[in-house]
Amino acid sequence: MVAEDPLFSGSWTLYKFRATVINDIWPETTLFTLIAAMVTTVTMLTKHDLGVGSTLLTVLGTVLGLVISFRTSSAYERYQEGRKLWSNISIASRNIGQLIWVHVPVERVKATDPIANDADKVRAERIKAVIEKRSMVNLVQAFAVSVKHFLRSEPGIYYEDLYPLVSFLPRHSTTSDPTQHDVLPMWLEHEKLSQSARSSTTSLPSTGTSPRKHVVRKDSSFSNYEKALPQVVSEVPLQPSRLPPATKFYDYFPFLRILKPIWAIPRFFYRRLTGRKKMVDEEAGIRGWTGKIKAPPPIDSNVPLEITLFLHSYVAFVLRSGLAQPAVATALMNNLGSFQDTVTNLERVRNTPIPFAYQAHLRMSLWIYLAVLPFQVVTTMKWMTIPGTCFAAFMLLGFLEIGQEIENPFNYDENDLDMDSFCASITRELHEITAHPAPDPSSYVFTHANQPFAPADCRHAEEIITDVAHEYHAPQRGMDSIKRTLLRSWKQVEEVTKDC
Questions:
Q1: What angle do CA 80, 84, 86 make, to 5 degrees?
Q2: What distance in Å separates the CA atoms of residue 262 and residue 144, rounded to the nearest whole number?
Q3: CA–CA distances in Å: residue 135 to residues 96, 147, 224, 314, 403
Q4: DSSP states of 177-231
Q5: Which sequence ranges are marked TM in the entry (predicted)?
């Protein structure tokens, strides 16, 4: 995602150039510029005057500008809504991770249990509890990753950033003599991938549901991210975390696509002379005639749903076992419900584009307006009609294309949301939560490093507790002395910081 201004922040690069809409609007801009050139040349160099009255120019231009503005604003609202919904996933992930890690106890052996006096068994139960909680936190991380692949129309779980987090989940509905008919929905894709792996062990498995071809490459940042995941052996080759369409030479120099048919002629005769068969066009079905990458078709994915089912079953287990208070379980259920609501809303944003009739009518109206524009301004602008029409087409078509590009912000376009970074951020936060052992507060509160009453009283906590001769420990006025100290601390802080 390109979020910085290339003109005033950083340097201009080809990657940032691809984030513009020049790649997408150059054929139309060129067409209307040629029309303007034709009209201007005929009017200026011949006796035929192609100029017409400009009465409709002002009226139609104003209306068309308002409609394009509404189109762009509607698309940007969808873009912003997608970002807000991802924030909901981040918030719910933090909450669930903290609730599981802090509020679900590790000490589960009661004094009345038969193994209470066996230190080894008690220690083993404690380790099992930590493993259990950490595994559930990994599922919270896997939920965000599965939503990312779902929104990008990448079905299944066989990805290097998802499979290691869910590989331990059960695969069959029964544990006694499982058959192919007992495979759970999440793992149904396994059969297709296994068949693909058996037929070709050197190529990556294809999911079979999306016609898009992907280039198998990873940038350094996400290679490092995958190193932070569990090292799990898969029965089929795993696909990379990112599967963007291959970047072609013409993506950086879009105007050279005009020459592509010319280069195809010598390639055709070369194949005929060498006896080679016609090569399959790898871009077929991926790009339109202008070279613009098409959005992948939506898919139905049950992976996020099944992950939440396992998290719900864990909450039910915690309640049945009496390991958490009802308030904690309620908070867990509310955040899991937030997961479900967020996925539904994200699916709504992705699968409900602006109606085609509206888009088609708006684009046709804009084409007609730009085609008629040179006839209305050639009388007054003369030769300036050509650059004027070019600029008008560039501006209006650009805004229209921006609205169409950002209305689905979940793909691999340079202006789409950086969901990989969002997932990496959730991963870091969950690991930071589980890095804290959640010890008894008494083990770190009453130490030399803690000065609770500063700045009025800079003694450390342990000294305050052991100094029984201090006025804090007086039987009648001890608490009053503490309150006065806290009031003095407030006054000192207020005085020192009021000018900051």
A1: 120
A2: 46
A3: 13, 19, 22, 11, 41
A4: S--GGGB-GGGTHHHHHHHHHHH-SSSPPP-SS----------HHHHHHHHTS--
A5: 51-70, 360-377
CA angle 111, 115, 117 (to 5 degrees): 65
Amino acid at 35: I
Which residues is 293 bridged to in the sheet? 287
Q: Sign of torsion, CA 379 381 382 384?
A: negative
Residues of the chain with pLDDT under 70: 1-19, 111-112, 189-225, 246-264, 267-272, 274-296, 298, 300, 500
The angle formed by the CA atoms of residues 61, 66 and 69, to the nearest 5 degrees, is: 120
State both tokens at 143.
């939920």
pLDDT in tens, 379-437: 888 889 899 989 988 888 888 888 888 888 888 877 788 888 899 899 999 999 999 88
And the tokens for 49?
A: 């005057």
- Note the residue count of the chain: 500
Catalogue the E-assigned strands of 275-340: none
Q: Report d(CA 237, CA 220) in Å as an integer.
A: 20
Domain regions of the chain by residue span: 51-246+285-353+407-434, 442-497
| Separation of alpha carbons 152 and 149, rounded Å | 5
Q: Which of 297, 283, 320 is nearest to 411 (CA)?
A: 297
Q: Which residue has the tokens 């050509």?
A: 386
| Cis peptide, bond prior to residue 455, ω within 30 of zero | yes
Rounded to an integer, what distance in angstroms lies between the CA atom of residue 139 and that of residue 145? 10
Phi and psi dihedrals of 293, rounded to 5?
-70, 130
Q: Among 217, 218, 199, 211, which Cα is nearest to 282's?
A: 211
Chain-wide mean pLDDT for the chain? 79
Q: Provide the 3-class DSSP secondary structure of residue 293.
A: strand
Contacts of 31 (CB under 8 A, 6+ apart): none
